[in-house]
Write a structure and sequence with these properties.
Layout lengths: L3 H47 L7 E7 L2 E6 L2 E12 L11 H5 L6 E10 H5 L8 E8 L5 E5 L17 H17 L15 H9 L5 E2 L3 E2 L2 H8 L2
Antiparallel strand pairs: 1-2, 2-3, 3-4, 4-5, 5-6, 7-8
Helix pairs in contact: 1-4
């Protein structure tokens, strides 16, 4: 004879466990499609530009089932999929939309991240280097999605109800992410702020193939190097 608790467990399996498995499968499928589009864009860029200037390197590679890297010149677009499913904080504005009010289970999402790192950070394994999160794609059980991100990606794909995953939309997200990377240049810090360095710090820089570097800030200031040394 089933107890009330056991019946509740079966109900929770249906409303949560099966739901999250479906979202995981959807997100995995979308991530596979995203990697396919990245590969196509790499081939197209090689055809349309790299033949004109072979010194500009462009290629895509998978780093595993849940990660891929698009290298273009000195930049790296790194895409990754989280294997867990998330709910929004209850204060999030998504709960005020008609789409979610009619079915709250539509608010549960898988997550795909798009990061920008310097290609040399990966090449030389400079673990102290910093990248930046350009966007994250949130996918629900209906394969609808929304994007939180930088620039136009912060508002173009906000409506979970209206946005269904397509190759065209994923290509647009990738292209806008690439443009954001290309528009973010390394900036030289003031000379006076980096002129003093200890021998230990300099040796640490040499061991990691150069100055620790951030895509947003240029290579790090002395205070940042000291902070990393203390971690």
């Amino acid at each position: 004879m089933e107890t009330d608790n056991y019946s509740k467990i079966l109900s929770e399996f249906e409303s949560k466990a099966s739901l999250k498995q479906k979202i995981f499968r959807n997100t995995t499928e979308v991530f596979g499609l995203l990697k396919t589009q990245l590969s196509k864009i790499a081939v197209k860029l090689q055809t349309d530009y790299v033949v004109k200037d072979p010194s500009v390197e462009v290629h895509f590679k998978e780093s595993g089932k849940f990660e891929g890297q698009l290298k273009f010149s000195g930049d790296m677009l790194m895409v990754s999929m989280h294997t867990n499913v998330f709910a929004f904080d209850k204060t999030h504005s998504i709960y005020q939309t008609k789409y979610i009010k009619e079915d709250e289970s539509l608010s549960f999402c898988g997550t795909i991240y798009i990061h920008n790192f310097l290609a040399d950070s990966v090449k030389y394994n400079r673990l102290a280097d910093e990248g930046s999160l350009i966007a994250r794609i949130l996918v629900n059980k209906e394969k609808h999605f929304m994007v939180e991100g930088e620039g136009a990606l912060d508002f173009l794909y906000q409506s979970m109800a209206e946005n269904v995953v397509t190759e065209e939309k994923l290509t647009d997200i990738i292209e806008r992410s690439i443009l954001h990377c290309l528009d973010s240049d390394l900036l030289l810090p003031p000379f006076a702020e980096i002129k003093e360095v200890t021998l230990n710090q300099k040796q640490s820089m040499l061991a990691s193939s150069g100055y620790p570097t951030s895509k947003n800030l240029g290579y790090q200031f002395k205070s940042e190097i000291e902070q990393n040394d203390n971690i």
